[in-house]
Amino acid sequence: MNGLMIVGLAIVVFAAAYLGYGRWLVRTWGIDRNAKTPAVRLEDGQDYVPASRFTVFAHQFSSITGAGPVTGPIIAAMFGWLPALLWLLVGGIFFGAVQDFTALYASVKNDGKSIGMLIEKYVGRTGRRLFLLFCWLFTLLVIAAFADIVANTFNGFAKDGSMAVPNAAAASISMLYIFVAMAFGLFIRKVKPQGGMKLAVGIVLIGAMLAVGISFPMYFDAAVWRYVVFGYCFIASVMPMWLLMQPRDYLSSFLLLGMVAGGVIGVLVANPTIEMPAFVGFEVNGKPLFPILFITIACGAVSGFHSLVSSGTSSKSIANEKDMLTVGYGSMLVESLLGVVALVIVCSAAKGGVLPQGTPFQTFAGAIGGFFMMFGLPQHISACIMTMCVSALAMTTIDSVARIGRMSFQELFTPTQGETVSAVSQLCCNKYFATIITLVLSYMLCLAGYMNIWPLFGAANQLLSALVLIALAVFLRTTGRQGWMLYVPMGVMFCVTMTALVMSVYGIFGKLMNGGFVFMIDGLQLILALALMTLAVLVVKHCGKELISGETEEESTPQLN
Q1: Which residues are CB-neighbours of 552 under 8 A, at least 6 positions away?
Q2: Interatomic CA distance for residues 218 and 208, integer angstroms
Q3: Which helix (H) or strand (E) covers residue 17, if one does?
Q4: Are 122 and 474 in contact (CB under 8 A)?
Q5: Residue 431 near residue 237, CB atoms below 8 Å
Q6: Which domains does the chain have, with CATH numbers?
Q7: How far apart, in whole angstroms, are the C-alpha atoms of residue 528 and residue 532?
Q8: Helix, strand, coil: what percent of the chain each, to 5?
Q9: Residue 273 pairs with which residues in a beta bridge?
């Protein structure tokens, strides 16, 4: 088997899924091209800001395409390339893309409300609060993990004290991105350029930022960058969408899509031979295929975090319902393709069935950089650009998650109709206070390092997917729409993730018995794991009851013309 055949197969399968299954979902549930979306009806210049299809796609794709689509498939390759490939294809089409699209669809049909607020409408107040608490705890893990990844990526000094030029250059480019994105947002707001002019200006700005950043690297250690990243998260959380996040994601999407295209073209040109066995075994290095494969490959197959982006930010920018398929379903398939490319790259770099040494990102970045060099790009420039792309994967995730975490905290304390607004509610609903409390707790978790956070993050992420799917199933049933296509994904993900969490808790207790238990690391993870498992069971109980015995309300479902 060679890489060209695998990537070619993936492209054909994903294209067929988009044109076939994706459009079938649209026809089944119905959209109204003439309806005023929440972004249009409720435009406030802050969270509700209508944008073009590509702009919203860029935001969705940039936000969901974090470290997962690269890291997960590369790690999962230890079981062989075939199990990872099958999960990327099946999971991406029938699990992940369906979840992302359905979450976006449900939110747009309900005034841009988040999944938590939808649960209140279709399940009840208790279900909403349980789910929002789960979501908020989950965002703490995401912010902590990805902030640590970014800070270490920006670290301008190697372990031996020497200057790490690619890292420092990537940091410089990223800082420029923030200020240029704000200027670009003001430009779009005031000038209102057409698509061609907007595209041309965006490409020129990207080229200029790359040139300036590579020429003037910024050398600071990881500790300094950690403060900078959290400062950026605060700004991104409270600023209007049109001023920072939408233009930044628009600009970042060119880098990320260019990285995907570079990987695909590189595979087409080089046509590497797969040096990894198709299947290694059901247990590798003491890790069982089930549930590890399904937890390791989250982004690229199915990720609960994606639903928070779909319903938290993207739904508030959709200008026309017809854009939902591209934004929700299409962006997930592109991410799955990135996962396939990463899998092919690492499996072609294997020697004698053994995966290459180094981190997944080092392997991936080195290979893509090599592809760029095939087209005449100097090695040091390729290294700087790829390091920038790595940081962009994480930066475009944490700014969205910081905003979603803030909003989840606010919604958790938002009084329902008829409830008295207390002083505590007023304080907790303040966006600045909600942002600060979210980021402070995330920073404390960040100090443990992403390697200590990642296992819990992976399990919680997939568990969130199960909870979102059952909540969406309730929405579809209650509104008289078919929802059977969600039943298998939600059942599989709940079983997988609860198994993984039980294994994690068992491992932590093993450390406790053996004397290797560290409270600030293991203890905190144990508390979070038990809290997440308890909340998950309670959410499933409330949603499952409504799914089985809830009443169906009449709702028109216009069909796509």
Answers
A1: 477, 478, 479, 480
A2: 16
A3: helix 3-17
A4: yes
A5: yes
A6: 3-549 (1.20.1740.10)
A7: 6
A8: 75, 0, 20
A9: 2
What backbone phi and psi angles, to 5 degrees, belong to 284? -130, 125
Regarding pTM above 0.85, the answer is no
Residue ranges for the chain with pLDDT beneath 70: 66-67, 357-362, 393, 418, 450-452, 454-455, 520-521, 524, 550-561
Half-sphere exposure of 185 (CA within 13 A, CB side): 22
Q: Name the pairing type of β-strands 283-284 and 287-288.
A: antiparallel
Mark out the alpha helices in 155-272 (DSSP H runs): 165-191, 195-215, 222-238, 245-270
Length of the chain: 561
pLDDT tens profile 255-314 = 777 777 877 887 877 777 888 899 999 998 888 998 888 888 888 889 888 998 999 889
Strand pairing partners for 351? Answer: 354
Given a contact cutoff of 8 angstroms between Cβ atoms, the answer to whether 413 and 438 are in contact is: no
Element (DSSP H or E) covering residue 308: helix 304-312
Give the tokens for residue 177: 């991105």
Nearby residues of 104 by Cβ (< 8 Å), 6 or more positions away: 310, 311, 314, 315, 318, 324, 327, 328
The three-class DSSP label of residue 250 is helix
Close Cβ partners of 31 (under 8 Å, ≥ 6 residues apart): 105, 321, 322, 324, 558, 559, 560
**Residue 195 CB-density burial (10 A; 0-12 exposed, 13-18 middle, 19+ buried):** exposed
Task: List the structure tokens of 306.
Answer: 């994606």
* Beta bridge partner(s), residue 284: 287
**What pLDDT is recorded for position 359?**
60
Containing 287, the helix (H) or strand (E) segment is: strand 287-288
Tokens of 531: 């809290």
Distances (CA, A) of 509 to 288, 297, 403, 513, 522: 19, 26, 34, 6, 9
Annotate 452-479 with b (16+ C-beta within 10 A) or e (fewer): bbbbbbbbbbbbbbbbbbbbbbbbbbbb
DSSP letters spanning 423-456: HHHHHHT-HHHHHHHHHHHHHHHHTT-HHHHHHH
